[in-house]
Amino acid sequence: MMAIHFFFPNFEGNGKKSFHQASFVSLRKLHHVDSNNLVKHSCKLTLKALSPSSLERQNVRLALQVFNDNTVGALKEVGNRYEIEHFEDTDEFIRIILTWWKIMNVKSLTVGLRENDEFKQPLPYMANDEKVQFLDNFLNWLERWENMDCKTGGLSKETHAALKVTTNATTEIAVYCNENFGLNFILPGKFQTDNLESRFGLYHQMSGSNYHISIRQLFETEKKIRIRSLLKLGISSKTFGQVLIMNTDLQDFGDVDEGSVVLSFWPSIHVDDKDIEGVREVLGPLTYIAGYCVFIVVKKLKCDACKSNVTVDKTIEIDENYGLIFKLDRGQLLCPTPNAVNAVVHNYIIIKKLCFDFEDDFIASENPRKIALKLSENYLNSENLFEHDCDNKHSHEKILKMLLWSSTNIFLNNYCKEKNNQSIKQTEKQKNRKLQTLK
């Protein structure tokens, strides 16, 4: 049974509180705050991650949807505003486990530089290194946690022992490799059996899901795996023959065909002061999304003039709407200008109207994304709500289209996820209803 609360000691060994309480209820309330919204404070947190089945509790991908930087930033951002209980302790617990995970899963020399994260750098043998000091503090923390002798709200003895052995062995390996092989650092993520387990998983799966396979099945399966690696992935079609599946860039910033737009939407789409006031509670995540859209523009165009027009200097005093960016920033996030934020806000309002006020017609249309993109673009241009001047002759229409393309993808993706969550909830209700009738 999955624990709802965790009672754990202070990580540093000192503090006003003798123990802290992390709660899954806090995370569920955070997820509930974002439900029915096209904008999420915690974009990684999903319903499946918060309510996993018995088998899904062993799924690392779902666990990392809870233990990630976005969840930490979201709890700090909205914990006080929505009176989420134990949000500070929950944030602290996630931060501790997440930091340990980052250190122990480094498999590349450059991932720390690429993501600008000190804890994703290779692990050295030096005792004064920040990562080594964290692992030492982590071992002391586990010791104090075990000595609390809580009957509930803690890790099992086996999990405690596994964490201790793994952490202690990793630091000792770093020292051993330096003393015997002259290595200045190690990659802890390489000391695992994931690849071996994955290979044996293929053996079992391709042998009829049989756990105890024979030598003959092993050789036959290995032969199939090697043949499959040489063949290109394709789909057989009676009309087109063998269609190869290739990794192509599907993004297209070209003109949208007017014929694909349902023009009947246009007279009904209008953004008023009430709509603007309604987005005030989600202005933080909208600003964060605008920052991502600006990053896409800067990355694609590589134009300094455009960058100065769509971003603001982070060193100057900025209002509280940029709080989520600063909570998640490790030095590389961009702060969008109010002009770019305004474009994303209007795009959000228009898509929200399409998804909730004209849902049936919008979903039944041939290309909903192009409709939302064109309507947002037309509205912003007709009201003169977006301006952009570039010395390199990048037009404001092109910049606006690139901004709206990225934000439209995000909002419609969140809409699809929310519909899937509603479907899952409805299925669970039907299961519970059937169980009640059998009692």
TrEMBL record:
Q: Which domain of life is it from?
A: Eukaryota
Know the name of this protein? Transposable element P transposase
